[in-house]
Amino acid sequence: MARLRFRRNRDPEGRMSLGDHLRELRNRTLISALAILVGSIYGWLNWEPLFNRLIEPVLTVAKAKTQGQGITAVTFVGLTDSFSTLITVGLFVGLVVASPVWLWQIWAFIVPGLTRREKGLALAFIGAAVPLFLAGCLLAFWVLPRAVSALLSFTPSAGSNILDVSPYLSFVLKFILVFGLGFLLPVFLVGLNVAHILSGRLMLRAWRGAVFLCFLFTAMMTPDPNPFTMIILAIPLAALYFAAVGVSLLLDKRRSKKDPSAAWLQVADDEASAL
Predict the structure, then answer these.
(1) 158 and 224: one domain?
(2) Which of 144, 151, 177, 269 sits in a 20 to 30 Å window from 258, CA-based?
(3) Are 148 and 58 in contact (CB under 8 A)?
(4) pLDDT tens per residue across span 203-230
(5) Is the per-residue pLDDT at 78 higher than 70?
(6) Which domain holds residue 27?
(7) Is 201 a member of any domain?
């Protein structure tokens, strides 16, 4: 009877058939899902203190209101809202806790067939991606009270804000995740450069549009009317973009020295390359 083969033989040049790609995607998705599930168990066991922390901005606004003003509170309207909140908070915690696993699986799927040197770059990717993702989440958590306070400030003094827990949590968790993923963008840009898809010179030429998108992103995700908040948040994103450009240019230069056929990466668009 033929023995089961748990590891398939890889092509030395990293080529894979469509079926291999689909199996690779299935396996890495399964590993990521299991890691998120394990992290979610911790979130489900500690969901109540985590929930109290997430609604703290609303409680702060409620305490600031004086007598005669409206009520501000987060309520559980439906019969199943408590259970849904438990599941939502747990999955969010699992997604954050398991970030080293699913980030690695994404990277390994995008750049298969790594050489020994590129495996070192892959480890550097994880070493940079996980802290950046967590830093983005922490930054969003720091901005969240300002955003909630700014949105609730438009309510008339005699009005009340009775917030349904499901839409409120959806807003808060998306707010945090978008910032975490936004901080990952420069790391994926370097990954595309390692995969020979995007050159550092091309990223440098697009710096104006990239900076504009950084400010547009922060303007959309921070409803605080204070422009200084947007500037404070956009500066780290722009700095990370230029850091990705610098790393990509260094990698292109090193690649062109080792492989003369890769010198076209350093040639301007209006010049003829040696190819």
Answers:
(1) no
(2) 269
(3) yes
(4) 888 888 888 988 888 777 765 566 777 7
(5) yes
(6) 21-183
(7) yes
